[in-house]
Design a protein that fits this description.
Elements (H helix, E strand, L loop, with lengths): L1 E5 L8 E3 L10 E3 L11 E4 L8 E4 L9 E3 L12 E4 L4 E7 L8 E7 L8 E5 L8 E7 L13 E2 L9 H11 L10 H17 L9 E8 L5 E3 L10 E13 L6 E6 L1 E3 L1 H7 L16 E5 L4 E5 L6 E11 L17 H15 L6 H17 L1 H4 L23
Parallel strand pairs: 17-18
Antiparallel strand pairs: 1-10, 2-7, 3-6, 4-5, 4-7, 8-9, 8-11, 11-12, 13-20, 14-19, 15-16, 15-20, 18-19
Helix pairs in contact: 2-4, 4-5
Length: 403
């Protein structure tokens, strides 16, 4: 089985250019500026995906600001060839033989295939089985820096229908752009996230498929809970629903074990009502009574302050923002991926219409279909209340009329 990793983009990397042309097997070059390059940096000579691009290792840059010792080149390079200071020069491939949540063991560290026209680095696992899963990471063989592992990639079957990678593959096949020359992967991910932003901005009530719950602990002496955030500190809560609390008092007989919804007050009323919400022994109690949302500090404030610590006692129910889409292994949170495909195709053909106006009509058709799909989302988002046997009230009276 061939496992594919997409090469990291060169956008945003430190970049300079060759000042003159060079034949193969040179060990020193003159660049237009070497001041941000360092000993043992891995440098890409040429742009990613060209047949004679290659990676070399930098020696100590010369103090004149231009001369740069490098490891011997394999190809010749013309003047003004791009020189990128790479963050990673290898791809590491990992495999789990014990399921998606099993232990992932490294199979190989493969040099970045910078000459691949489809901007991919591949590894062939000849012993692959349908039950295996794979992950990849980017690695710098000199600094030993490694990126986070990718999402799990299932063997043989490839991406599942609801995964981002499946829809991306469909889109590239539909527009006949397997080498990603007309539509870059970064641009495509941008379009996918545009859909999420559009769905959030153009709805009056939150979507039920974004409804979720998290469990929070109680900390002795505390009188606040932070709003939920992701690992980067971004807010996860789009719309608040309710805050439930589990109160346990083992001193009573029988033991008190109640879960109830905390009353939420307007923040100004809460401040006036509990102006002295201090953390001292005279006010602390584990029977939480009231709370308010403090948007300025992005936290819940509650009364009274907690007397003791305990895990998993606050239950926060809320509607989340969409997850930012950045990897092929993520799952779409909407009903189907179809709405994303419509939007990407509309934007793609709109871009092509700049050079070929005949594509404008096709772009408009896809955008119209996208807007129709978006308008249907709130109707599709309705949750049925049980399974009724009949659609009529219990006290209705039926009369029949005959001639």
């Amino acid at each position: 089985m061939i496992i594919t990793a997409f090469n990291p983009t060169t956008d945003g990397l430190e970049k300079t250019y060759l000042s003159q042309s060079y034949a193969l097997n040179v060990t020193s070059v003159e660049v237009k500026n070497n001041q941000r390059l360092n000993l043992n940096d891995r440098l890409l000579l040429g742009d990613m995906g060209l047949s004679q691009s290659e990676i070399v290792t930098a020696g100590p840059p010369n103090a004149n600001g231009t001369t740069l010792p490098i490891s011997a080149t394999l190809f010749s390079h013309p003047a003004n060839t791009s020189v990128y200071d790479l963050q990673f020069d290898q791809v590491k491939f990992y495999r789990s033989t014990t399921g998606i949540n099993g232990t992932y063991t490294m199979l190989a560290a493969v040099p970045l295939d910078v000459t691949s026209s489809d901007l991919q680095t591949q590894y062939d696992d000849e012993g692959a089985q349908s039950s295996y899963y794979y992950k990849v990471s980017m690695f710098n063989s000199l600094s030993m820096v490694e990126s986070a592992l990718s999402d799990p990639i299932p063997a043989i079957t490839g991406w599942a229908t609801g995964q981002v990678g499946y829809t991306i593959d469909q889109i590239y096949r539909e527009i006949s752009d397997p080498d990603e020359q007309q539509l870059s992967r970064d641009e495509l991910f941008g379009f996918l996230n545009d859909v999420n932003d559009d769905l959030i901005a153009n709805v009056s009530r939150p979507y039920n498929f974004l409804y979720t719950r998290i469990v929070l602990p109680r900390v002795a002496g505390a009188n606040s809970l932070p709003f939920p955030t992701d690992s980067s500190g971004n807010q996860l809560m789009w719309k608040f629903d309710r805050l439930d609390y589990n109160f346990v008092d083992s001193t009573t007989s029988p033991i008190t074990n109640d879960t109830y919804t905390v009353e939420i007050l307007p923040i100004d009323y809460f401040r006036n009502r509990h102006s002295d919400n201090t953390n001292d022994a005279t006010t602390q109690n584990d029977n939480i009574m009231e709370a308010a949302l403090e948007y300025a500090t992005k936290q819940f404030v509650y009364y009274p302050p907690s007397l003791t610590s305990s895990g998993a006692v606050f239950y926060l129910y809320y509607w989340a923002y969409f997850d930012r889409l950045s990897t092929e292994g993520q799952y779409f949170q909407t009903f189907t991926p179809h709405i994303y495909k419509l939007y990407v195709l509309a934007k793609y053909y709109r871009k092509r219409a700049i050079a070929e106006p005949s594509y404008l009509q096709l772009s408009d058709r896809y955008m119209s279909d996208y807007n129709s799909e978006k308008a249907r989302y709130k109707q599709l988002d309705r949750i049925d209340q049980g399974t009724p046997r009949r659609f009529r009230n219990e006290d209705w009276v039926t009369r029949s009329y005959r001639q």
